[in-house]
Each structure stands twice: as structure tokens, then as C-alpha cells.
Write a structure and sequence with these properties.
- With about 325 residues, the protein is of the alpha/beta class.
- The protein has a domain of about 200 residues: NAD(P)-binding Rossmann-like Domain (Rossmann fold, 3-Layer(aba) Sandwich).
- The protein is about 40% helix and about 15% strand.
- The strands form three sheets. It has a seven-stranded parallel sheet, with helices on both faces. A three-stranded mixed sheet has the order 7-9-11. A two-stranded parallel sheet has the order 8-12.
- Helix 1 links the parallel strand 1 and strand 2.
- The radius of gyration is 19 Å and the shape is globular.
- It binds nicotinamide-adenine-dinucleotide and thymidine-5'-diphosphate (TYD).
- The site of thymidine-5'-diphosphate (TYD) has 13 residues, from helix 6 and strand 8.
């Protein structure tokens, strides 16, 4: 019998890359994708996949009766990507972050425990650790949780619920904390796809504050490979950091994108900073390296070139998004900044 894996949020950026990865790597895997199709979920992200091993269910991970029915049906693993994922949007509508990221995770976790699903992987983020100073050592899995935004606080709450479930009921899940991802199918509200697409259209690139905030960038394929390894060989009850070991200040990243595209730096526009803006993220990945032998394959220049090629070759995909509901958000968030 094929192994059935429940992926939630599989119509989003990382989830869709992960489904593509699974179906390509394993001929015997059956994927069930539970996704609410919020503004960030896009059926086009999965166009061309092998439909014979794929089932799509439109629904909310916080819908307990739906989740019960889906999980009851003998799933081997649940990989929970479903989330409200954009820090800036969490400034405007925190409730949906609480509903999906906290309540939704709890509902999934309860069902996983009820049916003793062998593996539950919670896709968390390095943002739960908060911000680092320029000279601080990168976060380890033992660093305290100290979130700064409603997004990261809601993700941290979910991590805590998973730990509580283990202590109270003995059901052990695995938490992964990834750094900033980039690559194909990323919704163009996040830094890299926004700046690539704006630059292609000769529109300004809005850099927050002084642009010296640092992120640790990981190419999405590397992230998917690490999650899959953890799905198979990760130890239950553990937390694994998954970082790209590629720290870049935002302004350097911006200039790299302009340079690869052959666009002028005059497109850079410094704008008012994001409230509560974390200065630096960086992850220590010794644990996953040592225990599972994983290392990222891509560094920023090569990964960014590959990503830019994808956005150049798939203008229809992002132009369609940028012409819809997105425009209202963009105007509200950036106008007069
Ligand atoms: P995304 O915003 O691109 O996609 C989220 C997906 O979840 C969408 O398809 C959306 O429709 C779906 N969704 C939202 N609410 C739902 C609900 N209530 N029920 C079912 N589906 C729902 O997000 P992403 O960038 O692909 O991130 C995926 C996961 O990885 C998130 O949990 C995020 O916290 C985590 N993560 C992201 C990054 C990053 O850089 N993007 C880094 C580390 C961790
Ligand atoms: P983002 O892609 O939103 O990811 P996160 O906030 O989860 O790290 O932003 C990455 C960095 O880029 C972050 O420091 C904020 C900055 N940024 C800008 O300077 N301008 C923008 O328009 C956006 C969207 C982000």
C-alpha cells in the first residue's frame, strides 16, 4: 500500500515545493493536501503534478470535524505548513494568525494524537527566537523563545502546544525551525519575489529603515530536502534548526537582485521601518548536520540567480497575483510610507 502523507498548506510557497519534491522523489507516496486557499494559496502552484497520487481537500486546519475525517483515514505523517505567514499582514489582522497558527495547529495535533499518527512535523520558523545582535552567536535549538511579531508569537505558541502535548499525553511530534526561504512560487509580498518582480517592472524597491537588517537565506529546495529527511529519520520529540548559513543584510540582497537583473540602484527607495523589526536572524545548524548529515546545497548568489530565472520565465504567474486583491494590500501598506 502506498504511504499516505497529509500536507497542510500545500498550495502555498513551501508546501507546494514540498509536494512537488515528494512526488518526484518517491513513486510510492500518496499526498493529501488540505488547504484553505487563502490569498496566499494558489492552485497554479501545483499545475502539472501527477494527479494519480494526489488528493486536494479545500478546508481549514482549524475545522475539527473535517480534520478528524481526514486524519482518521490512515495517514503515515502530517506535515503542517498551513499558516498565515507574513509579518506585515499580522500588523493588520492578527486574528487570522491566532486562528490558523495556534488553534489550527492544536486541532491537527489533537487529531494526530487521537489516531496516533506516527509522525507529526510542525513547520516552525527561526523567528520564534526573536532578534540577534550583530556579534551574537546564531540561535541553537536551546535558545529561548522571544518572538517580536504576532506572526512569530503565534508560531511560538504552536511550538509550545506541541511540547505541552508531549508532556501531558506522551505524544511526540517534531518541530523544524527554518530560516528565510526563497525560490519558485513564493508569493510576491515577501522581500525577494517582491523585489525581483518590481525590478523587472522598473518599479521602486521599498527597503525598510536603514536596510541593514540581516536574514539567513535558504533556497526552498534545500529546506524541502531537510524536512523530508526529518520526516524519515528525525527523532520524535526533537526540534531541528534548518538554516541556509547565508547571512545577508537586506540592502546587499537588494543590490544583488538589481545587479543580476542589470537594473539601476536608483530603483532603491528607503521607506519607513516596520514596527518591531527584528535586526538579525541566524541559525546554528550543527544538530541537523551531525544527526542527519544534512547541509544546504545552495548559497545566495547561485540560488538567487536560479530564482530570478524562474520569475523571468513565469511572469504570468506573478503578474496575475499582482493584479488582484494584492493591489489593495500593496497600496494600503506602502502608500505614503
Ligand atoms: P504561504 O503563506 O506561502 O502559504 C501558506 C498556505 O497555507 C497557503 O496555501 C494558505 O492557503 C494555507 N492556509 C492558510 N491558512 C490555512 C488554514 N486555516 N487551513 C488550511 N490552509 C491554510 O507560507 P509559506 O511561506 O509557504 O510558509 C509555510 C510554512 O513555513 C509556514 O508555517 C511558515 O510559518 C513556515 N516558514 C516559512 C518561512 C518562509 O521564509 N516563507 C521560513 C520558515 C518557516
Ligand atoms: P520578509 O520577506 O517579509 O520576511 P521576514 O520578515 O519574515 O523576515 O522580509 C525579509 C526582510 O526584508 C525583513 O527584514 C523585512 C525586509 N523587507 C523590506 O525591507 N521591504 C519590504 O518591502 C519587505 C516585504 C521586507
Amino acid at each position: 500500500m502506498p504511504t499516505k502523507i497529509l500536507v497542510t498548506g500545500g498550495c502555498g510557497f513551501i508546501g507546494s515545493n514540498f509536494i512537488r519534491y515528494l512526488l518526484k522523489q518517491y513513486p510510492d507516496i500518496q499526498v493529501v493536501n488540505l488547504d484553505l486557499l487563502t490569498y496566499a494559496g494558489n492552485l497554479a502552484n501545483l499545475q502539472g503534478i501527477d494527479q494519480s497520487r494526489y488528493t486536494f481537500i479545500k478546508g481549514d486546519i482549524a475545522d475539527a470535524s473535517l480534520v478528524d475525517r481526514v486524519v482518521k483515514d490512515q495517514v503515515e505523517a502530517i506535515i503542517n505548513f498551513a499558516a498565515e505567514s507574513h509579518v506585515d499582514r499580522s500588523l493588520y489582522h492578527p486574528e487570522s494568525f491566532i486562528n490558523t497558527n495556534i488553534l489550527g495547529t492544536q486541532v491537527l495535533l489533537e487529531a494526530a494524537r487521537r489516531y496516533q499518527v506516527p509522525r507529526f512535523i510542525q513547520i516552525s520558523t527561526d523567528e520564534v527566537y526573536g532578534s540577534l545582535g550583530a556579534d551574537d552567536d546564531p540561535f541553537t535549538e536551546k535558545s529561548p523563545l522571544d518572538p517580536s511579531s504576532t506572526y512569530s508569537a503565534s508560531k511560538a505558541a504552536a511550538d509550545m502546544l506541541i511540547k505541552a502535548c508531549e508532556k501531558s499525553f506522551g505524544y511526540k511530534a517534531i518541530i523544524t525551525r527554518g530560516s528565510n526561504n526563497y525560490g519558485p512560487y513564493q508569493f510576491p509580498e515577501k522581500l525577494i519575489p517582491l523585489f525581483i518582480s518590481n525590478a523587472i517592472e522598473n518599479k521602486p524597491l521599498p527597503v525598510y529603515g536603514d536596510g541593514l537588517q540581516v536574514r539567513d537565506w535558504i533556497f526552498v529546495e534545500d529546506h524541502c530536502e531537510a524536512i523530508d529527511l526529518i520526516r524519515q529519520k528525525g527523532k520524535l520529540g526533537e526540534v531541528y534548526n534548518i538554516g541556509g548559513v547565508s547571512e545577508y543584510p537586506n540592502i546587499e540582497m537588494t543590490k544583488t537582485i538589481l545587479n543580476v537583473l542589470g537594473k539601476p540602484e536608483s530603483l532603491i527607495k528607503y521607506v519607513k521601518d516596520r514596527p518591531g523589526h527584528d535586526r538579525r536572524y541566524a541559525l546554528n545548524i550543527s544538530k541537523i548536520k551531525k544527526e542527519l548529515g544534512w547541509n544546504p546545497k545552495y548559497q545566495v548568489p547561485a540560488g538567487i540567480k536560479k530564482t530570478i530565472d524562474w520569475y523571468l520565465g513565469n511572469k504570468d504567474w506573478w503578474q496575475k497575483i499582482k493584479s488582484g486583491e494584492y493591489r489593495k494590500y500593496y497600496e494600503k501598506h506602502y502608500q505614503g510610507r
